[in-house]
Amino acid sequence: MQLDEQMKCWNHAAVKVLDIRRIVMEAGEQLSSYTLPANGFIYTIRGSADLQLDGRAYKAERFYMLHGAKGSSLDIQTNEDFEYILLYYRAFLAFPSYRKKWLLAEPEVAPFSLQYGFAPSSPLGLLRYLDALEGAWLQSGSLDLLHTKSLFYQFIHEMMVQLAEQEIKTELADPVKQTLRYIQNHYREQVTLDFLAEQFNYSSRHLSMQFKRQTGHSPIDYLIQTRIAKARNLLLRSDATLSEIAAEVGYSDVYYFSRIFKKHVGISPIQYQRKMREEARTEDRPLVISESSIGRRWKSGYIDYENHYQYIDGGSTPMKRRKTSSSMIMVALLSITMLLAACSSGTATTPAAGEGTGASSNNSSTAVSSDTGSQTNKDNETRTVSTVKGDVVVPANPKRVVVLYLQGDVVALGIKPIATSEVFNGAAYKSELEGVNSLGTWFEPNPEAVIDLDPDLIIVPSEETYTLLKDIAPTVYIPYEKMTTEERLQSIASIFGKEQEAETLINNLNSKVEESKQTLADAGILDKTVSIVEGGLKGMVVVESKQYGRGSQALYEYLGMKAPEVVQKKIDVVSEAGGSNLSMEVLPEYIGDYVFRSVYEGADNLTDDPIWSSIPAVKEGRLIEIDFDFFYYSDIYSVNKQIDFVVEKLLAAPRAQ
What is the pTM of this model? Predict the structure, then answer.
């Protein structure tokens, strides 16, 4: 980045000083792998030290200036007492027109993310401004903070003058090296592509392209492989439980860890551990196998966004969400291009989707009984859908539908989307989506992949995904966590003009429920107590609400069966997902005449546990294992199949007395 270009950026920048501090290090003291939390200047006051910024060495004598970008790794080795001033700031291009012009001209350059060091020709001039900055900052009054900002601009002006005089070369920090270092140090934490891009002041697109070009992997694929490699080591070197290993490598739920491990290694973690230990015994070799490096390309995940370490509650409850970064610059530009193209092709009479479009039909007084309703304009072959985000104009007969998480209801209405978020292998409707594109986890879809699909309708389940995708195509946000299964289906049906089909599905479900209840009553089962649990040897979660998932809707809400009194008291008053994590010692008090246990590959084998085996429902064969995948979803398609499963298993089990 040339100096004149850098000066233009500073001239159009909005700046905020974040911190300024004076630091003294003693001779021989060192600082290792310190990550700069923001863009920063380091100015040496006295002494000397060997500095490294992202691996590049600098010899810092008295009055030496070093600039590093947010996310850079700083190492300091002092040779004598070493004093320096550290100034953190945040800057961005303030004017939209200039920002757009800059990004179009220099799409791969992130302003203010430069790395350079030099000895100023007039060091005391810089020190004068830094001293004044420090004094104003310590006062911390509103007027002083304003003074701090004005002094910062004067400091920048003086520094740029001296850079120009010496023709100092500045360069961008390497985003790939920064990302590799961050993943290696923080693989246990929650990491997304957007987070990495924001961390190092790059666009998601630019970081992903550069990373893949240099390593052959996407950042998230590399993260997953790093975690898998660490997990393989732990499986071979320790007797830690699967849950402990999952947590250690960054997965908060062992179920997701097992799924991802098998996807990339080919076998489950437990099978891998047994196989490798058996081979070690057979070959009579020490069990010391290091797999901490990524030596080969493992089986690719869904897409770059496969980051499944979040535990997502099932049922009709709010799924746990991560905030999505707003720094999707390239996506926004592509989206604007698509919208302009649509306008120029003769569709200017159709308002774009989004919040508060103000679109409405002449019959605007039509009542809507749920959060989403629709009105059809046959002349333009569009439909106006009333949503919590305002009216959205959608195609009357959409052909290219993208849906996240809510795909079961869409399938039940006879619609096959072109792409959906990840569907678990055991989902009731899995076969119905054969050949449909996968966009990864529901809460972190790939916007660029969605753009490439050229959808004419997008349906999303959260505020975050709505914000991320709403500029690509007409987007309808369904606040499913605030709706019953029936309300959600009716809302989605109104988008497609399939209200009658939804009514039929609901009536059929109600008929099935009544028939099933009668069947269970005739068999003397309906009035027996049932419990739903999930967990292993170290503890069990007992489901205590109708909205938890894992069969709670089928059993407690639709079939109307009761739990043991200690659990039922909570079910009667809890309106959201609820459950208690209990030890094995107290678990028997919470188990009813029948017990349903949610299981997944890698779940603890409880056969030899004396407490579990002594529970009457388990001991007498009234334990029914349910597949996590199958009972995760709460759409009308899945609930129908879950009721069939529950009734069949209850009838097949020994009768409770």
Answer: 0.51
